[in-house]
Model the fold of this input.
Amino acid sequence: MRASEKGMNIQSMDSRLFGVDFHDFIQKEQNNTSYELASEFGLTIGDVRKLKKHLERG
Done:
């Protein structure tokens, strides 16, 4: 079975929102403030809040 580069990119984006890997975000969320998370991932503080809400629903 052949896998295309586009297919691989789509699969890797399944666990991402705002271009952030959820697993990495969850690990760092426990030890960092919203401001630190925003600067770490290149997001706004509002985006960090949205991600936290999204993760609580899941």
